[in-house]
């Protein structure tokens, strides 16, 4: 056993504790996401936090997420498993395992783990909410999915969000395009950064994402994906854009948008918060992944989805001053000046009646108890002194500014509180 360090253990680098009121804010955010997507017939999917390493290798063996950032380890039985770096691969694994009725429309929320270099908006443990749909090859579904993310951000009150969309074409289009980009980049090797040269060997398309100024110049005149789309892919993409126009969702076609995971083809998209630093301003992203089910051992099945980064979305809300943490809410705080029985019994009775209530343990002076009542955020302080005890009553003090005080018979207290809350 290791000894505790002098000031106690701390959370690991890149991992954070979330305390109140931020924790309630996250819960409300997930609730609002659930409201938006359940109204569109998506059902919740709860996935394991760990999977066979092989499931996540399908995310793309040429991506940083898999090669550099995976929390993988050998389990007690010798099998190789990993903490999930994202939830799409697990969702498709579950789809293959359970063969649900099509179309399968699901949503999820939870933590993911990537061994990244931590900075504001980039953590080793971060939360996502997202959706996946399997079994529909219709561009109007792409529109539905993209619109759900958009509407959710609107509902939070975010205004400074842009939607970027692109099409990478079919598998064959993407392969042809990747080759064209490779030969362009090869011809300009001398102008590229060290990092870009290293990425080029593994995945030329990822170089298009580079934010380094020397790479930007080379990328600026790289071949365009639009020139490499098959007629079918081009028609699919045109219908997606027409749908976004019809729903009045503003977008920018960003043909350098390749996304960090390998499974995408055809439509890809990202939501970008302009209020955030550009290195971490993607607050969500997604796309189609028409071969993932096969790669995971299932029948060929079309799929599309997105994941939104909860941590970054909340940073964007802070930056725009919207979606504040909910105020602490408690119906009543019992102040007992007669030895403790009232606090014990009345708090219990209030809770049993469905009201939220708290008290101070160890009682203390009236002043100490009233201070605790104020700090608790309770609407009413319920005072029980010897006077009240003898009369079978409780003094109800409204803790809002200018709030009144009244005596109420103990027998009518709960009804009385209900009518005033
Ligand atoms: P992703 O782009 O890797 O896509 O992640 C989605 C979002 O998660 C990002 O836009 C970002 O907001 C957040 N995120 C990613 N990494 C971190 C990090 N280290 N710290 C904080 N936030 C982070 C996916 O994960 C795909 N599974 C999305 C998808 C679903 N595609 C199809 N279906």
CATH C-level category of the largest domain: Alpha Beta
**What is the level-2 CATH architecture name of the largest domain?**
2-Layer Sandwich
What is the helical fraction, as a range of percent? 25-40%
Q: What is the general shape?
A: elongated
Summary, kept brief:
The protein is α+β, with helices and mostly antiparallel strands and 421 residues long. 38% of the residues lie in helices and 22% in strands.
List the helices and strands and how they pair.
Blueprint: H1 22-38, E1 43-44, E2 50-52, H2 53-57, H3 64-67, E3 72-74, E4 80-83, H4 88-98, E5 104-113, E6 125-134, H5 139-156, E7 161-167, H6 171-187, H7 194-202, H8 204-207, H9 213-220, H10 231-246, E8 252-253, E9 265-273, E10 282-288, H11 292-295, E11 303-309, H12 310-320, E12 330-336, H13 341-352, E13 357-359, H14 366-376, E14 378-384, H15 386-391, E15 393-398, E16 405-409, H16 413-420
Parallel strand pairs: 1-5, 7-8, 12-13, 12-14
Antiparallel strand pairs: 2-4, 3-4, 5-6, 6-11, 7-9, 9-10, 10-11, 14-15, 15-16
Helix pairs in contact: 1-5, 5-10
Bound molecules: histidyl-adenosine monophosphate.
What can you tell me about this protein's structure?
With 421 residues, the chain is an alpha+beta fold. It has 2 domains: 22-170 and 230-320, BirA Bifunctional Protein, domain 2; 332-420, Rossmann fold (3-Layer(aba) Sandwich), CATH 3.40.50. It has 16 helices and 16 strands. The chain has helices at 22-38, 53-57, 64-67, 88-98, 139-156, 171-187, 194-202, 204-207, 213-220, 231-246, 292-295, 310-320, 341-352, 366-376, 386-391, 413-420; strands at residues 43-44, 50-52, 72-74, 80-83, 104-113, 125-134, 161-167, 252-253, 265-273, 282-288, 303-309, 330-336, 357-359, 378-384, 393-398, 405-409. The strands form 3 sheets. It has an 8-stranded mixed sheet with strand order 1-5-6-11-10-9-7-8, sandwiched between helices. The chain has a 5-stranded mixed sheet with strand order 13-12-14-15-16, sandwiched between helices. A hairpin with an 8-residue loop joins strand 9 and strand 10. Helix 1 (22-38) runs antiparallel to helix 5 (139-156) and helix 5 runs parallel beside helix 10. The longest helix has 18 residues, at 139-156. The protein is elongated and about 90 Å long. The mean pLDDT is 94. The site of histidyl-adenosine monophosphate has 26 residues, from strand 6, strand 10, strand 11 and helix 12.
